[in-house]
Every structure is written in structure tokens, then in C-alpha cells.
Amino acid sequence: MLKFVLNRLLMALPTIVLVSVTVFTLIRFIPGDPAALMLGDMAEPDQIAAMRSELGLDKSLPEQFLIWTANVVQGDFGRSIVNDEAVLPLVASRFLVSAEVVVVAVLLASLIAVPAGVIAAWRQNSLTDLALVGTATILLSIPTFWLGLLLLLFFGLKLSWLPVLGYVSIGSNLTGGLLYLVLPIMTLVIHEMGVLIRMARASTLEVLRLDYITHARAKGLSESAVLWRHAFKNAFGPTWTVIGLILGNLLGGIAVIETVFTIPGLGRLMVDSIFARDYPVIQGCLLFVSLSYVLVNLVVDLLYPLFDPRVVAE
User: Fold this and answer.
1) 208-232, pLDDT tens digit by residue?
2) What residues have CB less than 8 Å from 272, skipping those under 6 apart?
3) CA-CA distance, 193 to 111, in Å (whole number)?
4) Which partner from 49, 158, 159, 290 sits 20 to 30 angstroms from 235, CA to CA?
5) Which CB contacts under 8 angstroms, 24+ apart, belong to 271-279?
6) What pTM value is reported for the model?
7) How are the residues of the chain apportioned to helix, strand and coil, as percentages rounded to the nearest 5?
8) Which long-range contacts (CB under 8 A, 24 or more apart) does 151-155 make?
9) What residue stretches are annotated with the ABC transmembrane type-1 domain (predicted)?
């Protein structure tokens, strides 16, 4: 087990380095001069040159990368050009808002979709199976922004059950904060259920065809015991991997949902920073999202042996 953990940690290091280089390089391709943007249109050339020197933009790209990497390791992501706020606390606070929506949505989608996919596999080619697969296909085909707008129209405007736009922190107002999060969470749950139902069904069907399932049935075990005690654990491994991928993707790609529901999360911060050409914040957001994705997938890899012990044996 220790060897497995060390191998996964060592495999993550090159990914982190590659991500850092990619983020740094992409930001340098964005047109515009951060120094000129910070000083405004009325700045003199010597003022711009002095600011470039202060920011280290007058150095070569390798030198800039080493300086930036050293600062990031120390927790210094720079300061926002727009409001002169430290980037790391700003990004972290917005990330927590996004995590409230994403983590709850993925958890609820998993609790609903995984058992549904297992049942669909158990009742293969039945009306139940066809209904669940058809529903999953429809859910996969609906764009999240369109689904969010439909939910806003129905539950917010027509029925007036839930607030339409805005955000209230759960820490300041638990009830109000939860009401504002219902629609964005519901949107993500409905969409991601389609992926998880199909994945859980496919992996369960594969396991149900194995010899040890036939042996368990030959011993006289009930179908429910065969399904949940023997098939489910081995079938859940591939689905667990997909859950990790969905979680990582949503943490970095929730900008559309946050824009539709005006949630001040990390995706909304990134979009606003792009329009404002706030390079340090864009760079901080990209790096934070990329590292979060790597971390989530690392955790998924480390927990995978709980569902398939053969992984460690290999």
C-alpha cells in the first residue's frame, strides 16, 4: 500500500510542474501590458518602465518563471491590478463559494444516480432499464445554462418558491443561503445524473457477467444480496473515478452556472478578471483550478484500492 501511495504522489509531481509552466506561459500570451494597465492611460513611459521593473516584467521568461514559482511556493500569488487585493485570499474565498455548490451537487447526484444505474443493470432490457437509460440520455443532452434558465423561470418566476438571482453566505444566514443555492445545485445534480447513471449501469453489467457472480447465485444467495454485497463494490470503482473527474471539472468549469445564478464563485471571478484584464487574478485562478483538479484526482487514485484491492497488488 505504501508503494502504491508513493507511486501516485510521484506521478502527480510532473503534472503539477507541467500545469505551472502552462499557466505561466498562457498568461504571457495575453495581449496588453500589465504595468500600463495598472498605471492607467495617462502614465509616462518612464513610469511604465519603473513598474515593469518592479513587477519583474523586464527580465527574461525563465527568470520570471523562477521568481513567480518561488513566490507561489511561499503563498504569494501577487496582487490584483483592479483593487490591489492579495490574490490568494481572494481566490480562496471565491473557491469556497464554488465548492459549496459543486461538492453538494456531486454528492446528491451520486446518491441518486449510482443506485439507479445499478438497478438499471440488474433489470437489463426491462422497461425500468429503458426508462432510466432514456432519462440519462436526455439529461446528458440538456445544456446546463439552458436547464438553469428553465429552473429559474419555473421555480423562481412562475411559482415564486425560490429567489431568482443573488447570493447570501451560509455563514451569515443559513436558511437564506440554502435557498439561494437550491437552484444551482439542482441544475448540476440533474445534468450530472445522466453521466453517472450510464457509468454505473455499464460497470455493473460488466461485473454481473463475471464467474464469481454466477458462483454466488449458485450458493443460493438472493438477487439483492448478490447485487449489493458482491457486485456493487467491484462495480463502483470505475464510477468512483468518474465522480472524481466530474468533481474536478465542475470546480474549474462552473463559470456558466455562477453567471446564470449570479453566484460570486471562482468561475465568476475568473470571467470578471478576464474582462478587466486583471492578469495576476487570472493567473491565480487558473493555477488554483488546475492544482485542485490534480489534487482531486490524486485523492480518487489513493482511495481507489478501497473498491478494488487488486490495484495495490499490481
Assistant:
1) 787 777 777 777 777 777 777 777 7
2) 278
3) 9
4) 290
5) 273/80, 273/82, 276/81, 276/82, 277/30, 277/32, 277/34, 277/37, 277/81, 278/80, 278/81, 278/82, 279/27, 279/30, 279/32, 279/34, 279/37, 279/81
6) 0.80
7) 80, 0, 20
8) 151/183, 151/186, 151/187, 152/183, 152/260, 152/261, 155/183
9) 95-304
